[in-house]
From TrEMBL:
Protein's organism: Fluviicoccus keumensis
GO cellular component assignments: membrane
GO process terms (BP): lipid biosynthetic process
UniProt domain Fatty acid hydroxylase: residue ranges: 113-244
Name the UniProt record assigns to this protein: 4-alpha-methyl-delta7-sterol-4alpha-methyl oxidase
PANTHER family: STEROL DESATURASE (PTHR11863)
Length: 265
């Protein structure tokens, strides 16, 4: 390797986008997940009787058992991802994420909606694939060790699954050549979904219900309790279309219609 090539590669890591794109995005991802997850996790730890009517499962949460292991995996996976991002920067710097002029607000909104739907579609099929064969036995079964989830468990993953899910979240921004700030907004939304989907509570005032198709933590909680079905990440319409609702979920949802909006056509 010539000195000129070494100098060129070294220069790539001195570019401002190296710190703003992969590294700051990872920091925002971890920070916002903890911001969303920790209050919910504390609530599950206390498990106040006054909020029992909002719980998805009648069983106690497993916070005390799984908090330490979850935090350990969370830190390990993010540290490993930081190394992967450093090594992949020579390629990532060629992707169309940019710091140019921000698009109009309606373009940003359209892009965010596209990211949500595309990520959910991709996640649905990848998630279904992870419930078969080697991927289920050696990778996805790690996440399914926890059946009574709390919000912090939204990032309890085998490293390979963590890498796959993180990559899926970037496909939409890469396709549209998103502004870096739009990417950051999307990551915040994605981490809200991860925390809220595992929190174990269905509150009628949940801000996620601003999105018409969202049904709250009950949807993904049934995936953990039943182990099969409810494969999408955020929106249940794919499971409705493909007939893959988790056993008992529809009856539970319909019984709680005032708190959990039913699917809309």
């Amino acid at each position: 390797m010539t000195s000129d090539l070494i100098a060129t590669i070294t220069g790539w890591y001195h570019e401002p986008m190296f710190w703003l794109y992969p590294m700051a995005t990872l920091a925002i991802s971890l920070g916002t997940f903890l911001l969303f997850a920790l209050p919910y996790t504390l609530l599950a730890w206390i498990d106040p009787p006054s909020l029992a009517k909002y719980k998805v499962q009648d069983k106690p949460f497993d916070v005390r058992k799984w908090l330490g292991p979850t935090l350990g995996r969370l830190l390990f996976n993010n540290a490993a991802m930081a190394v992967i991002l450093v090594l992949s920067w020579p390629w990532m710097r060629l992707t169309p994420i940019h710091l140019g002029e921000l698009p109009a607000w309606y373009i940003i909104l359209a892009q965010l909606l596209f990211f949500i739907f595309l990520d959910d579609f991709l996640y649905y099929w990848v998630h279904r694939a992870m419930h078969k064969g080697w991927l289920l036995k050696h990778v996805h079964s790690v996440h399914h060790r926890i059946r009574q989830t709390s919000a912090i468990n939204g990032n309890y993953f085998h490293l390979l699954e963590f890498i796959i899910i993180s990559t899926l979240a970037l496909v939409g921004p890469w396709l549209v050549g998103a502004h870096l700030y739009v990417l950051w907004i999307w990551i915040v939304i994605r981490q809200f979904e991860a925390a809220d989907g595992h929190c174990g509570y269905v509150f009628p005032w949940n801000p996620g219900h601003i999105f018409p198709l969202y049904q709250g933590a009950g949807y993904h909680d049934f995936h953990h309790s039943q182990y099969q079905g409810n494969y999408a990440g955020f929106l249940p319409y794919l499971d409705r279309f493909w007939g893959t609702y988790a056993r008992g979920y529809e009856a539970w949802r319909d019984a709680r219609k005032p708190a959990v909006p039913a699917d809309r056509p």
